[in-house]
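If you are new to this repository, start here. Below is one unmodified record pulled from the training split, so you can see the exact layout before writing a loader.
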Amino acid sequence: MLPHGLATKVSFWFRGSVSKSKGKTTSKGDDEPAPLPPDELASRMYEVFAVLGPLYRRVSRRVELNEPVEGLSIGVRAVLDLLRAHGPMTVPRMARAQELSRQFVQRMVNDAAAGGLVEAIPNPAHQRSSLIRLTDAGRTVIETVIARESELLKRVGGDLTDADVDTCVRVLTRMLEVFEHADAQADVN
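And here is the target side for that same chain:
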């Protein structure tokens, strides 16, 4: 859901990152830029955070603005989307997948169940931890939301390539991994 101006900034960032590396090449001498030194990389990662924060807040506001129409909070929408993508899951598994507390996810599941969007079914692997699955109504709602959001995402347009998107996903995934390790280390201390 990148607004046009933000999409331009993101596109520029990807294209500009090569030029900002001052034409450094790998030790093999090919045309690929060399990895950035840690201090320079940290500075560039702050640029990513500078884009992610406003993007996250805008997306959150957009979901909140549509809540009266669709009846979905951000949390319920996340639960429905997770179930759409992965099928029936337990609340603890959903919490781990979203890196949220089990109690928060349970509240979101309760809200979705009250709206007839999810239902609990027996879990053959664990008697006390039911599986939560989408109802037909829940599937219809989340598919409608995804379709509407896809229409918004088509507006990103510009000259972004598949390689640009791959790079974006790779960078964000790497950042997530770093912070996952930082979280695990903080839990130990």
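Two things worth knowing about this chain: The radius of gyration is 20 Å. The chain has two domains: 1-27+37-70, 72-156.
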